[in-house]
Amino acid sequence: MTVYEQKIGIKHWAEEDRPREKLVLQGRRYLTDAELLAILVGSGNREETAVDLSKRLLLFYKNDLDQLGKASIAELCKFKGIGEAKAVAIVAALELGRRRKETQPAEILKITGAKDAFDILSPILSDLSHEEFWMLILNRANHVKDKVLISRGGQSGTVVDTKIIFKNALDRNASYLILAHNHPSGNTKPSTEDLRLTRRISEAGKILDIPILDHIIIGDRSFFSFADEGLV
């Protein structure tokens, strides 16, 4: 192998080209996704620099950080050069990013339509590999008072107890409720059970004078609104 064919490690790069130094000198927005990931990875292997390894990892997930964010530690460890410690660092960093999106501003959020509910709950539900059922608790002005996890299930469904929904609603003095759950498949079309459940909860809400304003099903980047379709 000639000197021109040898792999040059990151420590031999020009300082302004090394990910860590580049971040310090130029700021985080000047780094590519691969360079940011390389900082987490820390080192490559005998055949690749940390940046090359990060590019390969991103390429596998079609350069989609949302897809990478769904990867488990075991899945990441299948890549040559990614051990458990590196996989844990990647999963932790992407989870922090997800939680940052989930953090709501200090001002009171008002629901004016299904898209508002989707924007609040999508960061919680869109990356899950299992189903979860949540609800938003609203006051008389349609301001969100709280968001509550009702149940957690498997890939194909979760058990929802109507009594738990309305116990939480009564304990928090809810005026209105918005229901939500995710479909890990990404398909937001409601199932027969989704329709039946929504009708049952809506009827209970009418009796208790706590109307169900909507039920939204969340996929990866889309949602289905029962209210928009005239189903509540």
Short description:
Helix content is 41%, strand content 14%.
Describe the fold and architecture.
This protein is an alpha+beta fold and 232 residues long. It is built from nine helices and five strands, in the order αααααααββαβαββ. It has a five-stranded mixed β-sheet, with helices on both faces. A hairpin with a 4-residue loop joins strand 4 and strand 5. The relative contact order is 0.09. The N terminus is likely disordered.
Give the integer mean of the pLDDT values.
88
Structural class: alpha+beta
Q: Which percent bin holds the helix content?
A: 40-55%
Q: What does the oligomeric state look like here?
A: single chain
In one word, what is the shape?
elongated
How much of the residues is beta strand, in percent? 5-15%
Number of strands: 5
Instruction: Please describe the biggest sheet, giving its number of strands, its sense, and whether it closes into a barrel.
Output: 5 strands, mixed
H/E element string?
HHHHHHHEEHEHEE
pLDDT < 50 runs, ≥5 residues: 1-6
| Count of alpha and pi helical runs | 9
**Strand line-up in the sheet with most strands:** 2-1-3-4-5
Q: Radius of gyration over alpha carbons? A: 23 Å
Distance between the termini: 70 Å
